Amino acid sequence: MFEARLVQSAILKKVLDAIKDLLTEATFECSDSGIQVQAMDNAHVSLVSLNLRSDGFDKYRCDRNLSMGMTIACMSKILRCAGSEDTVTLRAVDNPENITFIFESPNKEKLAEYEMKLINMDQEHLGIPETSYSCVVKMPSQEFSRICRDLSQFGESITFSCSKEGIKFSASGDYGQATVKLAQTADADNEEEAVIVNMQEPVKLTFSCRYLNCFIKAGPLCAQVQLSMSNDVPLVCEYKIGDIGHIRYYLAPKIDDDEEN
């Protein structure tokens, strides 16, 4: 038996919004420690790693490890049926063919159940090596979202440059070029608005706007985003999911301008 209950269905809706542009289907690995998803996007350019810890749920039970293949669009449609204040429960039997979503209104007067067919997926678990990064930047997620959206109007990629002064984002294309510099802020009073740069050595990397603009869909999950970078290794873009877990996006840097998007 598997059962996971969240008082706020809104969290799950935001998680789905954060991955549905990259993944059409994914295997949800459920164990007694929580729920994990690791999947490449359809073009095999970026990797999504989602972790929801069992202790973050209001009720969690997983008698044996389950791998459940789910269609993300279908899951997203079902979650849209939940009211923003509804409690959501995911339930499945051992060796399931379906998963049931149960939505309950705060006053307990309305109970809705939706059953979704699971899909067979042959997906091997992707091992993500532990890496120490040359530069780790924490910044407001709204600010990062705005920069990615604004700069993607100027080019197909954005260059991230980290130095002692702070972090610089730049893009160039047929219309001209754009640069946004963020200095490290010493304003510790409001941690959510701070820009913190921990740098071992300077880093300069270029990434595809198309993928960055998918990653920023996770912005509503938390006030701060963490960007971890080293030369020649994928960027890690991490958003915390309340007290329950995190979502990480991995994206390899572009090698040169001639490379395909």
Automatic annotation (TrEMBL):
**Which residue numbers delimit the Proliferating cell nuclear antigen PCNA N-terminal domain?**
1-124
Q: Name one GO cellular component term.
A: PCNA complex
- Record has Nucleus as a keyword: yes
Q: What would be one Pfam family of this protein?
A: PCNA_C
Top-level division of the source organism's lineage: Eukaryota
**Compartment(s):** Nucleus
Keywords attached to this Swiss-Prot or TrEMBL record, sorted alphabetically, are: DNA replication, DNA-binding, Nucleus
> Chief subcellular site?
nucleus
| Sections of the chain in a coiled coil | none
Q: Return the InterPro entries for the record.
A: DNA_clamp_sf, Pr_cel_nuc_antig, Pr_cel_nuc_antig_C, Pr_cel_nuc_antig_CS, Pr_cel_nuc_antig_N
- Recorded GO MF terms: chromatin binding; DNA binding; DNA polymerase processivity factor activity
Q: Outline the extent of the Proliferating cell nuclear antigen PCNA C-terminal domain.
A: 127-254
Q: Which GO terms describe its biological process?
A: leading strand elongation; mismatch repair; regulation of DNA replication; response to hydrogen peroxide; response to methyl methanesulfonate; translesion synthesis
Oligomeric state and partners?
Homotrimer. Forms a complex with activator 1 heteropentamer in the presence of ATP.
What does the UniProt record say this protein does? This protein is an auxiliary protein of DNA polymerase delta and is involved in the control of eukaryotic DNA replication by increasing the polymerase's processivity during elongation of the leading strand.
Q: Which family does it belong to?
A: Belongs to the PCNA family.
Q: Which PANTHER family match?
A: PROLIFERATING CELL NUCLEAR ANTIGEN
Record's protein name: DNA sliding clamp PCNA
